[in-house]
């Protein structure tokens, strides 16, 4: 229901987007390796831009995580989450407006672990110059393209001198080429301490994998959770996949109860990424106005309206805005 | 087992520290005197010195005092500038095998934050994990950092967490981890927590991914009770939770070591800009001293002092600058002392 809501809203906005639906359920290729279906890959490689709803976690043994497969197939190296307070959806915070940019290919999630001796395990964190430079470049480009004023590198280089030290050095080097953007550095623990006291002090935050995993969820919590948080994954060769990061909610599936906000805001991110800012702004405004008005909220937002009613209200507002 | 000395007094090693350390320590001593707490203070300095063989160590008289007294209270220490000079906190941690960092976070009525009714405890494994310090350059441009998780350290911290929960009437312990990603290391940590939980059927045991904890913590921290976790996660969560209740200026902290050693400390900085000006807020050190009293079984004294401290803050008449007032540290302290005497 989420994607049909988004398509209806895009239609109401007359956004110049044509949708090509594909399924990414993993299949076994020749050689026995899991892969995404060839027609899905072909479509993404051709279109470059994708919008994705939640995927269920596979139960079958050996079946890999779909998200991991997508990440590897398209080298989705940057996870980007803009977190903006939604007026009308009350949380302990107002005026949150920050963006977390997480390096998504290496770091603590290398998957390399060993038993050294019985009862002693080591887990390897890998930081490379290339991945660090690439994510830093993306962060500064993003800041410039979205009129953000500062980029903060989040790290623990006081403790992990070599690995986080390398990450930090690359950020500093890239910053040199973006004198129009203010560059700062902050320890991860200090960021968390300050984030919950005053999130308005933050703008764009760039960091390695694990810190990004934590901070992106922490920041989603500040604005109301995964049901209202957009997300984008930037890959090599111009590929970008935007997605909602909440679950599949099987208990309400098919009952016209879902909240399409997260997927819709991800689609707005997508429009902006494509340079279609006017359409993105119009749709976001309509969405926020509907929520602020509180008349047709879905259950998770505190109302008892249907997904279709929520969607129709947004469509109406878009048409009124024209 | 703590032996009672002369007149039932117990001797505690006091490390005032640097900057505002001495004045907040003297505030704590005044308040303890007003409460007639059976504590005798033995002051020591822990500034590192070079021992025979050239290794940095804490001064022998400080070590001897801690080994004898077992219990210590410590103010903030300044970060050493001199090259080669080690972190004092790291030296203390290694000297006394301070394996558990414990931070109770309770909302302070009168000191407004976006949250009310926070009442949780973070228990952080403080010897291994991501802070092993083992790093290598693999090839140019590729660095690896080793995270070490051992069965022994995981079991020890889990046992401490469940004992703490039982001794402090807490109903649940939650292990915080990322074992879905770090299957072996966090998996080992989690297994040890589960094993220890078996011996504490009176305490509810749950498990939660670190990212889910953070997502939920900022939406509703009241769902959490005792949280136990490896080093890095503890570093992050303990500071996150301190932020929920107002920051490091009001957050107590305790470090539990082997052989019965325990050092309680404020975790804010030395605030050199206000040192000596009677402007400091002694709350963090005082609440750490309250933790210390409870650790020693002196709950009545701890409760009395905490109540007086919270009442003074709630009343808002003599707040220090960082709490939103413009009173002096000595006035804030005197108000707490007066309330304690009234409570008797």
Automatic annotation (TrEMBL), chain A:
Its cofactor is Mn(2+); Mg(2+). The keyword Protease does not apply. It catalyses: D-threo-isocitrate + NAD(+) = 2-oxoglutarate + CO2 + NADH. GO terms for cellular component: mitochondrion. The keyword Oxidoreductase applies. GO terms for biological process: isocitrate metabolic process; tricarboxylic acid cycle. Keywords: Magnesium, Metal-binding, Mitochondrion, NAD, Oxidoreductase, Transit peptide, Tricarboxylic acid cycle. Its main location: mitochondrion. It holds the Pfam family Iso_dh. It is found in: Mitochondrion. SUPFAM superfamilies: Isocitrate/Isopropylmalate dehydrogenase-like. Catalytic subunit of the enzyme which catalyzes the decarboxylation of isocitrate (ICT) into alpha-ketoglutarate. The heterodimer composed of the alpha (IDH3A) and beta (IDH3B) subunits and the heterodimer composed of the alpha (IDH3A) and gamma (IDH3G) subunits, have considerable basal activity but the full activity of the heterotetramer (containing two subunits of IDH3A, one of IDH3B and one of IDH3G) requires the assembly and cooperative function of both heterodimers. Heterooligomer of subunits alpha (IDH3A), beta (IDH3B), and gamma (IDH3G) in the apparent ratio of 2:1:1. The heterodimer containing one IDH3A and one IDH3B subunit and the heterodimer containing one IDH3A and one IDH3G subunit assemble into a heterotetramer (which contains two subunits of IDH3A, one of IDH3B and one of IDH3G) and further into the heterooctamer. This is Isocitrate dehydrogenase [NAD] subunit, mitochondrial. It comes from Sander lucioperca (Pike-perch). The gene is IDH3A.
TrEMBL record, chain B:
Gene3D superfamilies: Isopropylmalate Dehydrogenase. SMART domains: Iso_dh. The keyword Isomerase does not apply. Pfam families: Iso_dh. Keywords: Magnesium, Metal-binding, Mitochondrion, NAD, Oxidoreductase, Transit peptide, Tricarboxylic acid cycle. It catalyses: D-threo-isocitrate + NAD(+) = 2-oxoglutarate + CO2 + NADH. GO terms for cellular component: mitochondrion. One of its GO terms (molecular function) is magnesium ion binding. Transmembrane segments: none annotated. GO terms for biological process: isocitrate metabolic process; tricarboxylic acid cycle. InterPro entries: IsoCit/isopropylmalate_DH_CS, Isocitrate_DH_NAD, IsoPropMal-DH-like_dom. Its cofactor is Mg(2+); Mn(2+). The keyword Metal-binding applies. It is found in: Mitochondrion. Residues 11-336 form the Isopropylmalate dehydrogenase-like domain. PANTHER family: DECARBOXYLATING DEHYDROGENASES-ISOCITRATE, ISOPROPYLMALATE, TARTRATE, ISOCITRATE DEHYDROGENASE [NAD] SUBUNIT ALPHA, MITOCHONDRIAL. Heterooligomer of subunits alpha (IDH3A), beta (IDH3B), and gamma (IDH3G) in the apparent ratio of 2:1:1. The heterodimer containing one IDH3A and one IDH3B subunit and the heterodimer containing one IDH3A and one IDH3G subunit assemble into a heterotetramer (which contains two subunits of IDH3A, one of IDH3B and one of IDH3G) and further into the heterooctamer. Catalytic subunit of the enzyme which catalyzes the decarboxylation of isocitrate (ICT) into alpha-ketoglutarate. The heterodimer composed of the alpha (IDH3A) and beta (IDH3B) subunits and the heterodimer composed of the alpha (IDH3A) and gamma (IDH3G) subunits, have considerable basal activity but the full activity of the heterotetramer (containing two subunits of IDH3A, one of IDH3B and one of IDH3G) requires the assembly and cooperative function of both heterodimers. Belongs to the isocitrate and isopropylmalate dehydrogenases family. This is Isocitrate dehydrogenase [NAD] subunit, mitochondrial. The gene is IDH3A.
